Amino acid sequence: MYEILKAEKLAEKIYLMDVHAPRVAKHCQPGQFVIVKMDDKGERIPLTICDYDREAGTITIVFQEVGASTVKMGELKQGDGFRDFVGPLGCASEFVTEDLETLKNKKMVFVAGGVGAAPVYPQVKWLHEHGIDADVILGAKTKSMVILEKELTAVAGNLYVTTDDGSYGRSGMVTKVLEDLVSQEGKSYDVCVAIGPMIMMKFVCLLTKKLELSTIVSMNPIMVDGTGMCGACRLQVGDEIKFACVDGPEFDGHLVDFDQAMKRSQMYKTMEGRAMLKLQEGDTHHGGCGNCGGDN
Amino acid sequence: MANVLNKVPVREQEAKVRATNFEEVCLGYNQEEAMEEANRCLGCKNAKCVEGCPVAIDIPGFIKEVKEGNVEEAYKVIGKSSALPAICGRVCPQESQCEGKCIRGIKGEPVSIGKLERFVADYALEHDIKPEGAKETNGHKVAVIGSGPSGLTCAGDLAKMGYEVTVFEALHELGGVLVYGIPEFRLPKQKVVAKEIEKVKELGVKFETNVVIGKSTTIDQLIEEEGFEAVFIGSGAGLPMFMGIPGENANGVFSANEYLTRSNLMKAFDDSYDTPIAAGKKVAVVGGGNVAMDAARTALRLGAEVHIVYRRSEAELPARVEEVHHAKEEGVIFDILTNPKEILVDENGNVKGMKVIKMELGEPDASGRRRPVEIAGSEYEIEVDTVIMSLGTSPNPLISSTTKGLDTNRWKCIVADETSGKTSKEGVYAGGDAVTGAATVILAMGAGKAGASGIDEYLKNK
Hints:
Shape of chain A: globular
Strand order of the largest sheet of chain A: 6-1-2-5-4-3-7
Order of helices and strands of chain A: EEHEEEHEEHEHEHEEHEHEEEHEHH
Largest sheet of chain A: 7 strands, antiparallel
Structural class of chain A: alpha/beta
Number of strands of chain B: 18
Distance between the termini of chain B: 58 Å
Shape of chain B: globular
Helix content of chain B: 25-40%
Oligomer: heterodimer
Strand content of chain B: 15-25%
Largest interface: A-B, 44 and 40 residues
Strand order of the largest sheet of chain B: 5-4-3-6-18
């Protein structure tokens, strides 16, 4: 068992946990992810690495409730644990292996939407520790959904917070902030890293194509094993098929076929809905959903 | 008394019944049947069957014990050569190995060696007969990567020689392809695989799950930081291949690996598990190997009408005859000499059909089989909602790309000596699908055996 040393609710439906996983903590790099499995019958769920402590042997994960499994996971407390916790998976962010001097001359902007703030944080932190301050645009639907603001403030160059409803920081989508910064506030960037909901990454990429700003995105498609074995996570990137788990999760955002990726992520939507219903109704669930073993 | 020219028939679940459940198809021999079948063995001095066995089991030796009703002794004879007899008795292609060489087969049917092996192994599992391990350890640490057939065999053999062995497994369950690939109805997971692995544990082998070598740690780190003196790589096949035809990324197109992993490893066929599977109502499985048969028969059990779509003729099907026979009995439809051209997709991105073309056989190709050639103008559409691609795999680069000095060939398979498993890197040995590309359980076991003796040789002379 991989023990949970800390469990915290960051916002509505968003949780942060520190998990004891020394092998992962020793080897992980910004950009990589883990797969967790709650119990014997649970799914394998890919999750972002938000932070790591090599000495304490811990990994910080952040996740949002999206289906029955993540709802159950949100109920875990300090002292509980995961049956399985495997990683680090995927490739590290490209800049980790880049020449530091070249990197120092690049102006980077990160665009973090919703829980996308979690994978952005270790990247910005790594850059900060290597003497590079990157700008960060941190977006959320509303004030209460803004996460990791304090942590990002400590490591970012400029941090621009925005909410869709204008309840905190700037007002409007992350794309608006990026466009304002570049076209009206005299900012110029060499690289953009956008991580968040697929639809956000798609629109950031449409904008940065126009701005001629090369953009990296981090994809989180449906996965099973996460080691290259099953191909569930395949994506169309330019004229190639890539596996997000071994070739990614980060790709050139201008080459990713987001429309196809979004369709693929809907594949189990109906089944997820049924599983959710079963979870909510618990023992009182008596079928009628057609596929869950209830007695109709 | 049955005709001595024929095998004692083995009891099976009836095709119509088993097509709707995941219980094991073949029920195996009981002791009476096993002893009767064992009596058909001529006990050849210069036994051809042993030559046909990749791990060289003393076949006449164990059968002699069965004849006399000494099943425990029979198990010990097999145990000298194989750590996984209950598995091999079920999934080895005996018809082209031991049984293919049996003298009885010249006139009549060969001795049913596979079913006898299975009987002996199941008896040992039921009666909890312990394998014979080493008296004491020799203090040398060996790491084995992967808990599939090659890794388990290598680990078991090394433990018997006294080595301290740790097996690292990337997934959350032990067994590799035995648990994620081969379905429950051919190889029961709890009753057979888990128990047989338990026997390897009893030999003193340690296991660590959730360790992806190349990511969680590397081979160089295992040697430099964790004190392992030798490493055996049995990491298995790898990345599934697709055809590269239009529509292949549509929802409803799966690799056989994904479909089988969801059902076998994640137990998606069982509602009490959380992982979903899109069973499909009308399924096309593209390919003709054992994996294709497994995927087809799984889809059938999940309630679908299933078609095998294969570009050559039935004679070229690479799957075992027994598997093809079982699939047909259960109702899988074979569309042979047929090849997909395009997967048809609806406006929501879901599979709605497949455009295929008829093929005919031309001149023999490099593999010696007659090359399938398209018949011009013979395209037609079939209505399916699920397509399972079972076209083989290409090697996973996780280990080769993170291990200094480990050579791969032009197909990206690890280069290893056939008789010792020795690779280009000192102290590192390899075998199984990571070396050969996708092959059989027993060949991987043979390679695991070779690796164990190679490592033993290396560490003794170090």
